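I have been asked to look over a protein record a colleague put together. Thanks in advance; the entry in question is below.
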Amino acid sequence: MLGMNNEFINQLRAELDVWDNSPTECDGHSRVVSTVLFNKGIEHTIWCGSLQWLGHGQVSPHYWIELPECGFIIDYRARMWCANMENPKLVDMEVPHSIFNPKDWNQVQYTKIQQQFPSGFGVPLNDWLFKILTMRI
């Protein structure tokens, strides 16, 4: 696997951003992203747990992906959920989106409850299911 330097992360972010508009919530989107990562041979873990936006509220259950090689998180649905909490105008400044280092976001806290391995989470998705989950409605 390629080293996960800034250039690699930026390239991966550009590839995954394409799927940001899929009509999925955190579990379905995690399956889409996991399928892309699986097909690229990138080691990752899917987590189910909770996301707390400190001082504003909590999302539970919530799904996200962790890249164990660098400790970064991939989460394209945190802002979607937090926009329904208090002070939605602060979401873009205080809640992460895409691929990020959790150490850079002190306003959110992820609590891991259950580790999901791609194969047990239905990944990789069949082509037809991937298309359905990423199709614009």
In short: Residues 6-132 form one domain. DSSP finds five helices and five strands in the chain.
